[in-house]
From TrEMBL:
<protein>
    <recommendedName>
        <fullName>Peptidoglycan binding domain-containing protein</fullName>
    </recommendedName>
</protein>
<feature type="domain" description="Peptidoglycan binding">
    <location>
        <begin position="2"/>
        <end position="52"/>
    </location>
</feature>
<dbReference type="InterPro" id="IPR018537">
    <property type="entry name" value="Peptidoglycan-bd_3"/>
</dbReference>
<dbReference type="InterPro" id="IPR023346">
    <property type="entry name" value="Lysozyme-like_dom_sf"/>
</dbReference>
<dbReference type="Pfam" id="PF09374">
    <property type="entry name" value="PG_binding_3"/>
</dbReference>
Length: 60
């Protein structure tokens, strides 16, 4: 992983069903929020972050 969105990354994204990609990104975001909530006083924001991400739904 080099952090660059190149030809192979675009090919992988385009080969993935949209709903599967959406759910993977959403799950990664939830994991990220849970991770940063463990640092400092960030835990007090977790409920709001998860509520906000929970309102995002896939539409085909």
């Amino acid at each position: 992983m080099d952090g660059i969105i190149g030809r192979n990354t675009v090919k992988a994204i385009n080969s993935c069903p949209p709903e599967v990609l959406f759910n993977a990104i959403k799950s990664a975001r939830i994991h990220y929020y849970n991770t940063i909530a463990q640092r400092g006083q960030n835990h007090k924001f977790l409920k709001g972050w998860l509520k906000r991400i929970g309102k995002i739904e896939f539409e085909s």
